[in-house]
Amino acid sequence: MALKDITLGQFFPGKTILHRLDPRTKVLLTVFFIVALFMARNILGYGLCATALLTGILLSRVGFKAVFKGLKPVFVIVVITAVLNLFYTVGEGEPLLSFWIFNIYWEGVRTAFFMVLRIMMLISCTFLLTYTTSPIRLTDALESLLGPLKKLHIPIHELTMMMSIALRFIPLLIEETDKIMSAQKARGADFETGNLLQRAKALIPLLVPLFISAFRRADELAVAMECRGYHGDEGRTRMKELRYAGKDYVAILLGFALCAAIWGVNLLGVF
Amino acid sequence: MEPIIQTEKLSHIYSAGTPFQHAALEEVDFCAYPGEYLGIIGHTGSGKSTLIQHLNGLLKPTSGKVLVEGKDIWESKEATRRARFRVGLVFQYPEYQLFEETVYKDIAFGPKNMGLEEREVDRRVREAARFVGLTDAQLEASPFELSGGQKRRVAIAGVIAMEPAVLILDEPTAGLDPVGVEQILGNIRDYHKEKNATVIIVSHSMEEMARTVDRLVVVNDGKLPFEGTPREVFAHGEELEAMGLGIPRMTRVFRRLHELGATVDPSVYTVDQAKAAVLDALKRGGKA
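ok -> structure tokens follow
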């Protein structure tokens, strides 16, 4: 079933070094990586980023296949970006190719190529983060990193709680959708053929039970949370406190080093 | 006799190519005969749900074949569609798939998808409602106003209304009270008798299976280790316990009695059989 292949917010349990890093470190590393990616201006910079990313994927042992699967949904965006950059970048020299109203410059090809690389690496790196970090640890990390904003009366705890519930519910709802779809297919429902209107109509037998069950689950969760004495952020303690270890400091240093290296190679005048 | 449903070396692998990859079924040869009341038993995660979803073409085998009435259901699109209607599948907790405004419309969903004409749909809906004991007033009610047990029966009626030659039910009695359980099992038995349909019930409750089915198939770890009459299957007591299935309480009592030296049949599995076995032992004991 295709729905099961949706990888958003999915977590691959494991015991590799990437899994064991403090989630805050991983969030910070992701930020460093994104900064580095946007700083990179030449092939060496992009090469450094790609090396860092590939090392990450290899270390995590989630497999390249899983990462590529995550890239599939953004394929359209990647193509559109490439095409727009290709045609709309105006260069200084002679156009490489020109027909009708379009002129393709060498700079366009270069920008398109780097843009595609940048988007793909950006997405892969965030997927690597969610693949190796369980949703609960991820939201804990965000709450801790964004903690200072609580002083400005921004409801960080509530926001991260909502996020963790949402992340928790995605796989559940996907599973539920899959189940209801199978059940309706067993009664001869057809989700695949017909025009747009017919297909939209065919979704009613799927959406009605799905909404009902989502509300039911939300209701049950609210009751369960209240039964366990949940009353928001104040005075709440954690079973698993986040603590930085030696490897986290090393990882953050490496993140810094990547940014610094990119700044360095930007000064070199290469492609 | 020709089997009505048959699988040949059926294998299914979930999430192939990811760290979650695992084989739910491995080279399974399964068959069900026309008019049979068959039980499939196995604990959670044994592969029993995967197996039944192959029987009406909801899942496509990774390798191997599924034959319904002798024809490969993946041969063509029409063959798959035909299999959907010949083999009716009632999922676990089917009451969560109800969606229409009235019970009548919900039961009519399946027959309408088959492309039947209005009068035939009406006949089937009313007959299915009769099988599961729904009144005319209930047919016009919203399915969401009914009780849990009633909803379950509406959902089963929705599949029965397609008049499948094979009716498969996945844990049809899960989460019901004893009265509800008896009602549902009675409804299914009625359908089996009146339509001479093949019925396949999936369950992990040995007691319930022992009382109802003609033949049992055990699923464990993606394979079918045992099959046969309940008596034959329950003779594998130790192996079944090792699979986390256990044997009916009555069988356990009589096996223990047998071990203690009583001259009783150790393969007893219902109360009636137990009564007969005790009377028999007493009679023989009296003579000796």
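The longest strand of chain A covers residues 97-99.
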